[in-house]
Amino acid sequence: MGLNSLFRKKNVQDILRQVESNEHGHDSLGRHLTVKDLAAFGIAAIIGAGIFSTIGKASADGGPAVIFLFLFTAVACGFAAFAYAEFASMVPVSGSAYTYSYVAFGEIVAWIIGWALIMEYAIGNITVAISWSDYFTGLLDGIVTTLNTRYDWHLGTLADWVQMDYLTASNGFDNATALMQGGKSFANLDAGLQQAYNAWTTAPTIGSFHFVADLPALFIIIIITALVYRGMKESRNASNLMVVIKLCIILLVIAVGVFYVDTANWDPFAPNGAAGVLKGVSAVFFAYIGFDAISTTAEECKNPQRDLPKGMMWAIVICTILYVIIALVLTGMVRYNELNVGDPLAFVFQKLDLKWMSGIIAVSAVVAMASVLLVFQMGQPRIWMSMSRDGLLPKRYSRVHPKFKTPSYATIVTGFVVAVPALFLNLTMVTDLCSIGTLFAFVLVCAGVLVLQNRPDVPRGKFKTPYVNAKFIMPVALIAGVIFSFTYNKETTMAFLNNEKEINTPATIVTSLSKEQTTEVYNSLLARDVATGSQDLEQILGTYEKDEAAYKKLVDELPIAEELKYESGFDLFKHKIPMYIFLITLVLLAIWAFRKNLSLIPLLGLICCLYMMAQLSVWNWIYFTAWLLIGLSIYFGFSRKNSKLNQVKVI
Collapsing DSSP states into helix, strand and coil, what is residue 466? Predict the structure, then answer.
């Protein structure tokens, strides 16, 4: 097989004919979904961790101006949604971005995007399961505490080591130990570090292995997988019910919270500037992940070419309005810098002594997380089913249950793939991996629309992205951006290009010190009367951090190596590699737009999603690259020779 076989493409007419004639040899999926159901699935997927958790961290970084980040992310997802909607109208089958890439780019790219979608849905499911576990155990702890206080009972709460993943406990123990070594007392540690330390030290051990596992996450995955296996109608009904519950709770939060808004808390509106707002881009984007899962249900829609585009758009619009209002209410009820907590909605009402609202929010958060997991858990098996139909995965993955009309085998495998890692993986790691896999899929779908825009041999569906010629808009915008960067933002731009060293935060410095170095640093501060009254190094250094010049002077005088004080050289440059990739790609896109009269909306979707990828750390790019290499080894070892297109060629 030559290199040309890597880019062999599927024909839209053939795809539709294969599905209609049931050439894959399994039962068809049941068609039950309408626009209302699709929009509900989108809301179920989008309103979850974002509104109940990550909105707090993003608000703490960006202040009330975080609403602009929600709007920017919604616009970026909206651009991508146009591309998804056009493809879904053109190719209304279950493969989502995988099938779209097969049509636009060919088999190797389709495999890559299918493999990336496995990361999006499987890793996304793991993320949501872990978040659900956090809220569920928090709710249980609250119930137990209330019963013990009110009735003088002596009920016990779940042990820390059965409600936390292995990596969080291990890393938390190390960080807590380093901070206590730096003079911080255990009582003054962050609550999360305290829990991680306790989980690690109290867990059963086998040799040097500490048995720490998130059992509630396993519990919810088993329940949701069973529901998804049982049927689309059951999943739809459960999703719709959970959406109604959480929308009612969110509207209640807004209705009650608006009376406690103090507009003085909105000043300053953007306390940390644009950098602070953009700092939360990963967390806020994760809040929108899931709308594309709607496209995996194409074969179960009554009228996919009409309903899929409408369902996606309505879901994004409704959720964006709710996100913006909630962000304004939260930052109006308390100061933005108090919102860096895991449960911001419950936190603000506890702070205002409205504990009854906190209890309602805790219950609704558990429901919201379960609905997100339901939608994600539906998407993954349908991607595998489509890849199996094409011969890229074993045939059993396309098996449809004769009674329930669901991809039965793929659903069970998805349950195992999600359940086992959820016991042990770290939430931050899986969140970022899910984000980069999703953004990569969005980039290729937008690029696919651009590739197909001028091909007359491709049949068009009922929905088509409005065309605006980007021939001159894109190059002019790029030139304007360069001029702005070197005039109004010259200092930051030159620091980026010159790779100027950056000072480390107090926490980074303290946690990187050995015990001997910690003692030496403290003695040097004591000698200069800086450490009077406290033995907490992080706290001492933190009091100087707001004054940039004073903090730099203090750190420069510390008796430790330069690399512990600053990040510089390649250690700093490697974090800028994703942004350099984005900038180079931007130039190439401007040239492509000028030469091929590209459509502006999918081009903007591609640029926005690639920019958000560039905001993720270089380690996420490395992990993602490793994931793709594993996928390519499977493709060349199994999928390429078993592809249905290869079999047609052989015949």
Answer: coil
Instruction: Judge whether residue 431 has pLDDT over 70.
Output: no
Please give the single-letter amino acid code of residue 474.
M
CA distances from 162 to 158, 210, 212, 427, 438 (A): 7, 11, 6, 15, 30
pLDDT of 530: 64
When pLDDT is averaged across residues 166-183 and rounded to a whole number, the result is 81
Give the domains, in start order, of the chain with CATH numbers.
Answer: 33-139+218-455+621-646 (1.20.1740.10), 166-212 (no CATH), 509-563 (no CATH)
Map tokens 């707002």 to a residue. Answer: 277
User: 357: closest CA among 266, 250, 262, 261?
Assistant: 250
Of 596, 545, 210, give the one whose Cα is nearest residue 555: 545
pLDDT > 60? residue 363: yes
pLDDT at 418 over 80: yes
Tokens of 167: 């990596």
Rounded Cα–Cα distance for residues 252 and 322 (Å): 12
Q: How many CB atoms lie within 10 A of CB 625?
A: 11
User: Is residue 252 packed enough to be buried (19+ CB in 10 Å), middle (13-18) or exposed (0-12)?
Assistant: middle
- Parallel, antiparallel, or unpaired: how do β-strands 502-503 and 566-567 relate? antiparallel
- Write 198-201 long-range contacts (CB < 8 A, 24+): 198/160, 199/159, 199/160, 199/161, 199/163, 199/164, 199/169, 199/172, 199/173, 200/161, 200/169, 200/170, 200/172, 200/173, 201/173
Side chain identity at 158, as an amino acid letter? L
What is the residue type of 488? Y
Q: What is the C-alpha radius of gyration for the chain, rounded to an integer number of angstroms?
A: 26
Here the tokens at position 285 are 């984007």
Torsion angle in degrees (nearest 10) through CA of 489, 490, 491, 495? 110
| Helices of type H across 334-425 | 344-351, 355-389, 408-422
Check whether 650 has a pLDDT greater than 50: no
Q: Where are the beta strands (DSSP E) in 430-586?
A: 502-503, 566-567
The answer to whether 609 and 567 are in contact (CB under 8 A) is no
Q: What pTM was estimated for this model as a whole?
A: 0.77
Q: How far apart are the first and last CA of the chain?
A: 14
Q: Rounded distance, CA 205 to CA 183, Å?
A: 28
Q: What three-state secondary structure class fits 599?
A: strand
Contacts of 285 (CB under 8 A, 6+ apart): 73, 76, 77, 435, 438, 439, 612
520-to-174, 180, 556 alpha-carbon distances in Å: 20, 15, 14
What is the token pair recorded at 76?
A: 């970026």
pLDDT at 33: 75
